[in-house]
């Protein structure tokens, strides 16, 4: 993973990026991630597709996942992200709720395995009420409305010391949210290049 790539600002970049789109159920992780992946021409990893069957069954029954349920899944997401980068991609866009800091930290250790990897989080947030309405409007998704409340109960909003986090308010239109997320990503890349 040492080849030079082009960053979102069109400049050569010697790093590979993991862009983790995070937030509670209903915040639009998949929608925003797919938009970013397409705009940046990067592979997209839908984190929900990597949950073991036992996790999906628990969530579909309204049973919140425990930390123990998540560890192997989070490790698998990190490994899949690194695998995509090893295949030559300049970056990867990954979705994962990453509700607690320790969950984000599982992904944060990716640079220990490959020094040219940078990890960034795009935290999508809105009120519980807004997200509950969105989840209730979904059809055919295993994540029920009751899971929104349980996710808010364990949510650890990224703190100011988590300097790798970009925050995006998702209470606007889908297009506004997508454009704001992409613009903030571009600003991060440009700022990193200046330092």
The biggest beta sheet, please?
Answer: 5 strands, parallel
**Number of DSSP strands?**
7
Query: Roughly what percent helix?
Result: 40-55%
Q: Please state roughly what percent of the residues sit in beta strands, choosing from under 5%, 5-15%, 15-25%, 25-35%, 35-45% or over 45%.
A: 15-25%
Structural class by SSE content:
alpha/beta
Instruction: Give the uncertain stretches in residue-range form.
Output: 1-6
End-to-end span in angstroms?
22 Å
For the largest beta sheet, what order do the strands appear in spatially? 4-5-3-6-7
Query: Number of helix segments?
Result: 8
Round the mean pLDDT to the nearest integer and report it. 87
Gross geometry? globular
**What order do the SSEs take from the amino end to the carboxyl end, as H and E?**
EEEHEHHEHHEHHEH
Radius of gyration: 16 Å
Textual characterization of the structure:
The chain has 195 residues and is an alpha/beta fold. Helices cover 47% and strands 16% of the residues. It has eight helices and seven strands, in the order E-E-E-H-E-H-H-E-H-H-E-H-H-E-H. The protein has helices at 29-40, 53-60, 67-86, 101-108, 110-113, 128-137, 146-154, 174-194; strands at residues 5-6, 12-13, 16-22, 44-45, 91-95, 117-125, 165-169. It has a five-stranded parallel β-sheet, sandwiched between helices. It has a two-stranded antiparallel sheet with strand order 1-2. Residues 1-6 have low confidence and may be disordered.
């Amino acid at each position: 993973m040492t080849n030079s790539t082009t960053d979102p600002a069109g400049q050569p970049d010697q790093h590979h990026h993991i862009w983790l789109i995070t937030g509670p159920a209903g915040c639009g992780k998949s929608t925003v991630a797919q938009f970013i992946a397409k705009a940046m021409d990067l592979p997209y990893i839908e984190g929900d597709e990597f949950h073991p069957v036992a996790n999906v069954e628990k969530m579909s029954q309204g049973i919140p996942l425990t930390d123990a349920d998540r560890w192997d899944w989070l490790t698998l997401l990190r490994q899949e992200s690194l695998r995509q980068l090893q295949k030559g991609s300049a970056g990867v866009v990954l979705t994962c709720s990453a509700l607690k800091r320790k969950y984000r930290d599982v992904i944060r250790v990716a640079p220990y395995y490959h020094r040219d990897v940078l990890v960034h989080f795009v935290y999508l947030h809105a009120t519980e009420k807004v997200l509950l309405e969105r989840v209730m409007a979904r059809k055919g998704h295993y994540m029920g409305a009751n899971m929104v409340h349980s996710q808010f109960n364990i949510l650890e909003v990224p703190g100011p010391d988590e300097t790798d986090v970009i925050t995006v308010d998702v209470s606007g239109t889908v297009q506004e949210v997508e454009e704001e997320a992409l613009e903030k990503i571009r600003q991060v890349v440009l700022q990193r290049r200046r330092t």
